[in-house]
């Protein structure tokens, strides 16, 4: 069995449904356990439970969202061979979920009875809320434009060499394996950090919202670049190549946002979203012009 053949096995309808059910189950159980630990921590003084995520009941929402994000990454790898556009939309959705999870964390850091607009925690909450709304709006715009492109391209016959989808499926399988390895490394490092208060691996980030996802988007960029390079030899539509290159730049901007904090983090996310949307609008205009 060739590498790309494993794609059909791993991402079969039965497996996707199984992963979805497991995700829902783990989300529910994870929420219950997290909430129970917070309850125990509020009544008893256990040094082992003296953690930031075990001090506020709202933090219990962090766990189910983490499992949902893992499922969304699974879907992203599944959509990767389909098209750059579908993949980028899924990336925006993942970033949006990360931001929503971060909003719940922001709420736990604010002392609302004594809060003022000078508080950094409150400013971060407002910035993240605004970023979520803008990114959701960009996702809606993206879906609308992509639907128009699909309707437009369905009227014309486009040729793509049969080998290219196989290449993309092989890359998706390899990417999934590497993601699993990276996630295990981060999990081991996180457990070690909680026990020994230091990272097992040097250079790891302490920010819970960037753990794993920073490396994940780096892997995603490398995969996109590899697919882009392969497409240069397998397609004659140069404007489509320019579109795909623009989408890679959008992914890079999303990746850079993990290294920024506060307003700069939100700006890079929105810039990445708007840049990607501008690219797809230009591509739609090109198709409109070329088909007339």
Mean of the pLDDT scores?
84
Strand content: under 5%
Total separate domains: 1
Basic shape: globular
Helix content: over 70%
Which sheet architecture does the biggest sheet show?
none
Q: Could you give the order of the helices and strands?
A: HHHHHHHHH
Structural class call reads: mainly alpha
- N- and C-termini, Cα separation: 45 Å
Report Rg: 21 Å
The tally of helices reads 9
Low-confidence stretches: none
| Total beta strand runs | 0
Explain this structure.
This protein has 9 helices and no strands. It is mostly helical and 292 residues long. It has one domain. The chain is globular, with a radius of gyration of 21 Å. The mean pLDDT is 84.
